[in-house]
Design goal:
The protein is α/β, with parallel strands linked by helices. The chain has 17 helices and 19 strands. The N and C termini lie far apart (82 Å).
Length: 488
């Protein structure tokens, strides 16, 4: 601590830097912290000569697994002072409440369990492609070898969940890549805590030496124009909101690829079976409450607009009102490791919700008076006009007669669709992707994202690698271009 302000060091491939400090503010203005002046270290951030990646290729995949598993043990929250300090500071910067932040930190070590890593890498890349050249013979006799290489990458990490920093570091390790991680203003400490743990564990290990963590103000064009160049980095992996991702696109050019994990909205679909028994309604209500309340609705995966095949007649709307009350009650009972009353209920959203209370002919508002979250039940088959603002545990239930009415509401911005009952998926899972849906889950499991699964309709780990081919051909086995007959 200096002048009562915490320091977010810069870590450049095993070196912890705390010189030339400047003061910056975390998002929301709750915390000012000190960090090295990024302009002074611009020339040291890039790896430079790509031959410096060669030390990673002396490692076997089992060596990488051993390193990751040992790191996972050292990320046990109860024993790791770096995580503990980062967690305390993140209480002020994070968009979620302390119990949710702490629960995220306590779950980090599970990400690095050996079986989970093997499952994720095998599913998305294939371990054999990371270990060496994988051969096959083509129809024309060509012998083709393919291998996945690492890259020099810049990662612009989102700050709504601490685990995202660890996912980034893990993907970097298994791909044998070099990572520059731009710490987000609403989570400037998590990646640093993990990197410091790596340095304490194995300061001279190649995996430690290929992680850089730094904070700089997004939009510092003079700085970014020099760093975001193909001679410095080959791939930019960017999470974030519309404005920040739009800003990054200005730097994309030949030799510099953007892998965009951009902002999305998620929804839920409830089939008519949901409303055929009280037991089904209660089960669906608990599941839906989980999808709305998880991370206090700060994730793209969280449900916001819910289309319910309750019917739009008076009886159907009344059933949906009763169901909305069950959802609201279940949301208030969620464990505080999953959901709490929001840290700071958005005042603009609250004004919109409160205005609907005066419009009881078209809407029923359940809860929300104390900023704890609310369920808005539409009495017409239309979402509220401010559906894009839904946040802080606020969802809109929309009655429909037919599931065909839902399809127009699904588009390229739709990430996750939670569905109930499970049998309804067979009817929808081949149709929803045509409209833009990117992930289909059982209702209640929206927040259970898996490293082994695609994300945002891409396979990020696969995209982060460089897929190189080696063609082996001779005239004896493969038709030779120079032996083609001339055309008269």
């Amino acid at each position: 601590m200096t002048n009562s302000k915490p320091i977010a060091p810069m870590i450049i491939r095993g070196q912890i830097i705390t010189d030339h400090l400047v003061e910056v503010g975390g998002r929301g203005g709750d915390l000012a912290f000190l960090t090295p002046d990024w302009n002074r270290y611009l020339d040291k951030l890039p790896l430079g000569n790509p031959t410096k990646l060669a030390d990673l290729y002396k490692l076997r995949f089992d060596d990488i697994l051993d390193y990751a598993v040992e790191l996972g043990k050292r990320l046990n929250f109860a024993d790791n002072r770096h995580l503990q300090e980062a967690c305390e500071l993140s209480y002020l910067t994070a968009p979620t409440t302390p119990s949710l932040v702490k629960a995220s930190y306590m779950g980090l070590s599970r990400v690095l369990e050996r079986e989970n890593i093997v499952e994720a890498v095998e599913a998305s890349v294939g371990i054999e492609y990371l270990e060496g050249w994988v051969p096959r013979r083509l129809l024309d006799g060509t012998e083709l070898e393919v291998r996945c290489f690492g890259a020099r990458a810049l990662h612009i990490v989102a700050g709504n969940a601490p685990a995202l920093s660890l996912w980034t570091i893990l993907r970097n390790m298994v791909l044998r890549s070099d990572a520059i991680i731009k710490a987000p203003s609403n989570d400037p400490f998590t990646a640093l805590a993990i990197a410091r743990t790596m340095i304490e564990m194995a300061p001279d290990h190649p995996l430690t030496k290929h992680v850089t963590v730094a904070y700089w103000k997004g939009g510092d064009t003079a700085f970014e124009e020099r760093l975001y160049q193909p001679q410095n980095i080959e791939k930019i992996v960017a999470w974030g909101g519309f404005a920040s991702l739009k800003h990054v696109t200005r730097y994309i050019q030949p030799g510099l690829e953007l892998i965009s994990l951009d902002p999305k909205r998620s929804a839920s679909i409830l089939g008519r079976q949901t409303f055929e028994s009280e037991a089904a309604m209660r089960e669906a209500a608990v599941r839906l409450a989980s999808d709305i309340g998880a991370l206090n609705q700060k994730g793209c995966v969280c449900a916001r607009v819910v289309y319910a095949q309750s019917g739009t007649d008076d009886d159907g709307v009344q059933k949906l009102n009763d169901f909305g009350r069950l959802v609201y009650d279940a949301m208030l009972k969620l464990p505080n490791s999953l959901s709490t009353a929001p840290k700071r209920y958005d005042p603009g959203l609250k004004a919109e919700v409160d205005a609907l209370r005066l419009d009881d002919e078209w809407y029923q508002v359940i809860g929300g008076r104390d900023g704890e979250g609310a369920v808005i039940v539409s009495k017409i088959p239309e979402a509220v006009s401010f559906s894009a603002m839904l946040d802080d545990r606020t969802a809109n239930l929309v009655p429909v007669d037919s599931l065909d009415e839902v399809m127009d509401a699904v588009d390229a911005y739709t990430q996750t669709v939670g569905i109930y009952p499970e049998a309804l998926k067979d009817e929808l899972k081949d149709i929803l992707p045509l409209h833009g849906a990117q992930r289909i889950v059982s209702l209640g499991y929206a927040a259970g994202m898996k490293l082994a699964a695609p994300q945002d309709a891409i396979e990020p780990m696969r995209r982060m690698g460089k897929w190189i081919s080696n063609q082996i051909a001779s005239p004896e086995k493969t038709p030779a271009p120079w032996l083609r007959p001339s055309i008269n």
